């Protein structure tokens, strides 16, 4: 059997005149009687093409007056070989090789491309592009994709079909109407999983199209694939009722509520996969995190029977940035709303701009002594122990116990808001009077700061992740990572746009204190100790120790109005008396380490033992049937406090209006 040497042109492009340009060359030797599959495998081996992931397109030029001829089957190879025998010169009848991805998406156009077009093969996948075009020769990655696409097509065009023949190699559909000429045929390409449309007659000659469609049962797969873009953002609210309304107004399809609900669940399944399978992705995901962000601390803990228990992540961006923030760690917990529930534990601090820096995030099965102890153990591995470090929480008993074990010498403080909610629940009738007394006791100058932070609830970590807590664990962890990625670049740009010595928040506080200091009188006692007179009140300022008898200077590490009056009296700058954690330089260093995007999983070299690692869903309490709980149960006092309150436009007080106000006007 004789051999034929063939030159290959690859990595080129077809121009508008049907000529292959900017190509590279290679060569192969094949038998004269080679089949199409042998030719493909020979080319793939020579060019190192993975035919399980790529589709190879072969064309050649017969002469300059004809468009390129494509080899698609055994007959095409025989025609080429007979032509090649007439001129066996290596440079004659060169094969032009184009390589396409199996999962490439088809852009839907209105072009009237004919069946004999010389354009490239178009490959469709589901559910992202469930389209049937006007012309034949479309290629799909498998038979299931063809079936899903034709279902979508039938819903859009309101007709019903039935299967005439279905096998591993063919898929033949006809209309349910008698003697109707509508038909659809698709066959396998060379016994592979890829299917191509061979014949498609769109014209219906029956009169039953509209009548049969009314009785037709729309599948959730079809409608679910159509509404997938509505659920890409977890914050989007798109209900089953919205699906009913949009399908009727946009496509003329009338769905019941249950059909719309099933379509919504199918869309979630297409988009997020099976919640149980989400846990099996964690070993590979954590490996990619460690490779992408060297220095990060990620940890996955399982039970003896390979079930998920804990997951911990602290990215190196947060680890390096934490050194330039105040050593105050705020820990909190919130419940998850996915199929397998669970608890998310977080630790955060405040940067020089007064915004949140997320230090770590952790998913555990339950909130108990063991989970909090493990949380702080991993936190200590990542961040260690800093001087003057303290922990702030809601004083949960498990948190107190865990910190006493892992950080025995670290002071533990309570969140002012959580203490107040506990007081309010105990004294329901007199909490308005207790409100003023409580916050006055907790230092009145912190009330404005507290109210300001509470009003900006969009910056609250729980508020930001509220909708994401419904996601499966893999998607939840990736959502938080992308959130860190976005926050890091946004805050870095704001830091570069800050031209004051201090960050935005603390610079404003300093300006407010400077305004208050204008009317204060200062009397020197020693070089470092001064008495500041504010009307009949007297305060003592010690610049050597950065202290003031009002308590604000030493607690906030920012000069109070009395300290600023003293500094002005001594002609000294206030920059040396501000905490270094509040400066613009610290803000820039906090976010100097970017959170780079994760590489494509398919292009990551993950060790086999990581891929083989098994993580089963947790054995704990799975979400019960019925409408899931979205928010925690609130006390009567919390619900009542949200009712409309009358406030005065004159003094700003509550309980009366401007007409009945007897107080002095508030300062503007």
UniProtKB/TrEMBL annotation:
Keyword field contains Metal-binding: yes
Recorded hits in InterPro entries, A to Z, give: MULE_transposase_dom, Znf_CCHC, Znf_PMZ, Znf_SWIM
Q: Name one GO molecular function term.
A: nucleic acid binding
Organism superkingdom: Eukaryota
Specify residue ranges for compositional bias: Basic and acidic residues.
Answer: 610-636
Name the UniProt key words of this record, in alphabetical order.
Metal-binding, Zinc, Zinc-finger
Q: Where is the SWIM-type domain?
A: 539-571
Q: Where is the composition biased (Basic residues)?
A: 658-668
Q: Looking at the record, which segments are called Disordered?
A: 600-636, 648-668
Specify the CCHC-type domain's residue ranges. 648-663
PANTHER family per record: POLYPROTEIN, PUTATIVE-RELATED, PROTEIN FAR1-RELATED SEQUENCE 5-LIKE
Protein name, per record? Protein FAR1-RELATED SEQUENCE 5-like
């Amino acid at each position: 059997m004789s051999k034929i040497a063939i030159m290959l042109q690859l990595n080129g492009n077809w121009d508008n005149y049907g000529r292959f340009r900017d190509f590279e060359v290679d060569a192969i030797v094949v038998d004269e009687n080679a089949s199409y599959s042998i030719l493909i495998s020979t080319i793939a081996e020579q060019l190192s093409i993975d035919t399980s992931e790529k589709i190879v397109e072969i064309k050649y030029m017969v002469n300059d007056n004809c468009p390129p001829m494509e080899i698609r089957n055994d007959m095409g190879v025989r025609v080429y070989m007979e032509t090649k025998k007439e001129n066996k010169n290596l440079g004659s009848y060169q094969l032009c090789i184009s390589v396409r991805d199996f999962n490439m998406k088809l852009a839907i156009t209105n072009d009237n491309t004919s069946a004999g077009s010389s354009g490239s093969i178009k490959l469709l996948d589901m559910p992202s592009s469930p389209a049937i075009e006007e012309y034949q020769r479309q290629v799909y990655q498998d038979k299931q994709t063809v079936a899903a696409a034709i279902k979508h097509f039938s819903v859009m065009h309101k007709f019903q079909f039935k299967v005439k023949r279905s096998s591993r190699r063919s898929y033949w559909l006809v209309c349910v109407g008698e003697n109707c000429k509508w038909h659809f045929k698709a066959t396998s390409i060379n016994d592979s999983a890829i299917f191509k449309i061979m014949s498609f007659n769109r014209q219906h000659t029956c009169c039953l199209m509209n009548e049969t469609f009314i009785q037709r049962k729309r599948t959730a797969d079809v409608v679910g694939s159509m509404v997938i873009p509505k659920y890409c953002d977890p914050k989007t609210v798109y209900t089953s009722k919205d699906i009913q309304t949009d399908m009727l107004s946009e496509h003329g399809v009338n769905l019941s509520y249950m059909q719309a609900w099933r379509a919504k669940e199918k869309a979630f399944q297409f988009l997020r996969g099976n919640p149980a399978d989400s846990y099996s992705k964690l070993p590979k995901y954590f490996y990619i995190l460690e490779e992408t962000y060297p220095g990060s601390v990620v940890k996955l803990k399982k039970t003896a029977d390979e079930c998920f228990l804990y997951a911990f992540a602290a990215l190196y961006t947060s680890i390096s940035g934490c050194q330039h923030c105040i050593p105050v760690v705020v820990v909190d917990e919130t419940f998850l709303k996915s199929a397998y529930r669970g608890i998310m534990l977080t630790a955060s601090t405040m940067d020089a701009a007064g915004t949140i820096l997320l230090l770590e995030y952790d998913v555990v099965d339950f909130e108990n002594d063991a989970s909090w102890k493990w949380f702080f153990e991993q936190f200590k591995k990542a961040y260690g122990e800093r001087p003057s470090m303290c922990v702030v929480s809601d004083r949960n008993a498990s948190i107190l116990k865990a910190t006493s074990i892992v950080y025995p010498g670290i002071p533990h403080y309570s969140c002012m808001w959580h203490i107040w909610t506990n007081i309010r629940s105990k004294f329901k009738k007199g909490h308005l009077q207790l409100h003023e007394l409580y916050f006055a006791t907790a230092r009145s100058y912190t009330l404005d700061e507290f109210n300001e932070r509470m009003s900006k609830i969009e910056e609250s970590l729980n508020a930001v992740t509220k909708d994401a807590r419904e996601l499966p664990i893999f998607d939840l962890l990736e959502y938080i990572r992308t959130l860190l990625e976005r926050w890091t670049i946004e805050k870095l740009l704001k830091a570069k746009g800050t031209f004051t010595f201090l960050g935005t928040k603390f610079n404003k506080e300093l300006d407010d204190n400077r305004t208050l200091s204008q009317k204060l009188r200062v009397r020197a006692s020693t070089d470092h100790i001064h008495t500041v007179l504010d009307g009949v009140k007297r305060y003592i300022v010690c610049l050597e120790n950065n202290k003031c008898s009002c308590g604000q200077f030493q607690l906030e590490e920012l000069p109070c109005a009395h300290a600023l009056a003293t500094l002005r009296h001594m002609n000294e700058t206030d920059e040396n008396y501000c905490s270094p954690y509040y400066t613009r330089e610290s803000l820039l260093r906090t976010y100097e380490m970017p959170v780079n995007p994760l590489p494509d999983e398919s292009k990551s070299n993950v060790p086999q033992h990581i891929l083989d690692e098994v993580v089963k869903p947790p054995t704990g309490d799975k979400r019960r049937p019925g409408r899931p709980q979205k928010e925690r149960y609130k006390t009567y006092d919390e619900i009542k406090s949200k009712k409309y309150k009358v406030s005065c436009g004159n003094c700003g007080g509550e309980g009366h209006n401007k007409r009945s106000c007897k107080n002095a006007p508030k300062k503007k």
